[in-house]
Amino acid sequence: MPFYHKLGKIPHKRHTTFKKPDGSYYYEELFGTIGFDGMSSLLYHCQRPTQVKEILESINVAPTIAVENNMKSYALNGFNAVPTNDFLESRIPVLVNNDCHIVVAAPKQSQTTYFYKNADCDEMIFIHKGSGKLKTLLGNIEFSYGDYLIVPRGMIYQMEFNDENNRLFIVESYHPMYTPKRYRNWFGQLLEHSPYCERDLRRPSELETHDETGDFLVKVKKGGMLHQYIYASHPFDVVGWDGYNFPYAFSIHDFEPITGRVHQPPPVHQTFETSAFVVCSFCPRLYDYHPESVPAPYNHSNIDSDEVLYYVDGDFMSRNHIEQGMLTLHPSGIPHGPHPGAMERSIGK
C-alpha cells in the first residue's frame, strides 16, 4: 500500500543499534517485495528470525487440474465446500492459472498449533460468513462479514475465528495486489473520485510481542509445496516496525458505487488490481437513470481475459438461478451476456 504506518518501538534511525532494556540487541529485518524496489517495512525482533531447528516433511498442495485449455462456461457452487476443521485443509482451489488461484474455504477452527506463510502469493481473503481476528507478526486486525483482508506475500499469520460458521473466498495472486492506479495520484494518494479512501482501510493494531523460545511450527507455501519448519523463537516477536508493506482490511460496506445515467463498465467497480488481473465489487446501487437506459449488462466479448463472478448476497439482475456462494466462469474468446429475459426485466427498474 502506498501509505506509511508504524507500530510499537523503533529506533530513531534505520540500520542503527537498537538495544533492549538489558543492554542486548533487537534484530532488524527488511520485509520487502520486488527485490529492493517494491514496498517494504523494517521489523525489529526480540530474537533472530532465522533460527530454524528442524525441517519436517514437505507436502504437495498443487491443485489437481481437471480441465485444461478451457473454452466452456461454468457455474459452480462454492457453498458445496464441506466445512473442515483445519484452516489450510479447508482451502479448495476451484479455478487456477499462472496469475492467480481462486479458492473457497469453510474452516471451522482457529489456527492454534501452527503459523502460516504464503511465500508465493499475496492473498485476498473475503469474509463471506464469520468473524474473528487476523493475527500477524505486524499486529492484529479484527474482521467480520464483508471484509476484504489483504495479506502481502511472506506475511506470517494466523486466523482466529469466533465460531465454526465461516465461509471464505480467497484469491492467491502471483502478482502484488494494490489499490487501483486509476484512483490514485502520482504520489499514491487515493483521489476524490475513488469509491473508497485511506480512512476506510483498517491497518494492523494491537501489536502482540511474544519474546519466547521453544518449538514453533511455521507452514510455508512455496512452489506448490507446503514446507514445515520448526523455528526456535515465536514468529510474533516483533517489538516495533514501520514502513509501507503490511496487511490491511477493507469492508465492502465502505465501498461507494459509482453510478451513471447509462450502464457503467466494470472498471468503475474496481477495488484492487495487479499487473495481470483486477478485482471489482458489484454493490447495491442506484440503477442507471436515463429514461431509456438498459440497466442490465450488455453482451460482452471476452477477447483478452477470463471473467469470474462470485455471488455474495442480494440479487444479480442479469442471471437466473443464482445462489449465495456460487461462482460463474466466463472464459476468454467467446461472448457472454445476460440470461434470456434479464435485459427486458431490467428496463425501467
Task: Tell me what you see in this structure.
By secondary structure, this protein is mainly beta. The protein has a domain of 178 residues: Jelly Rolls (Sandwich), CATH 2.60.120. The protein contains one helix and 26 strands. The strands form seven sheets. The chain has a seven-stranded antiparallel beta sheet with strand order 7-8-15-10-13-20-16, with no helix packed on it. Strands 4, 5, 9, 17 and 18 form a five-stranded mixed beta sheet that branches. Strands 1-19-3-2 form a four-stranded antiparallel beta sheet, with no helix packed on it. Strand 2 and strand 3 form a beta hairpin. The two termini are 38 Å apart. The relative contact order is 0.20. The mean pLDDT is 94.
What would the keywords be for this entry?
349 residues, mainly beta, Jelly Rolls, 7-stranded antiparallel β-sheet, 5-stranded mixed β-sheet, 1 helix, 36% strand
